[in-house]
Amino acid sequence: MDFETVSAADFGRSLMGLGVNLLSPDVRALAAFLSEVFGLSVHRLSDDFAIVIHDGAMFQLHHDGTFRAHPVLGLVPETPPRGGGAQFYLFGIDPDAAAARAQAAGYMVPEPPADKPHGLRECTVLSPEGYAFSPAVHVG
Fold it and tell me: In this structure, what CATH number is given to the domain that contains residue 77?
């Protein structure tokens, strides 16, 4: 599927399995964070929407305004961090490199890279909205 040209209707009909959609007051800023820090590919970028791909997995970004009529928007906190309690693992991305890029760009890294007992080296980087992204690689 060509994410740059597929119609909204055809794209919607193609979705299966688990879908993740992150709401953002600034889709372009969140997309830039994901691309700059983690190297994720961003498609169909606009002020209202983006498709993000990591290792064949897809998720979507939607601007708050696109959810104006949706009841979930009323549950989004007005004061940060918006994404508190949600953690998104990005397996296969070097946490040391991602943390260095994040810090250089001024993003918060509340959990620096470390080897964990469950066999992963990981860190946690917060997006501007407070979503926790954890790049992780297998140890050993």
Answer: 3.10.180.10
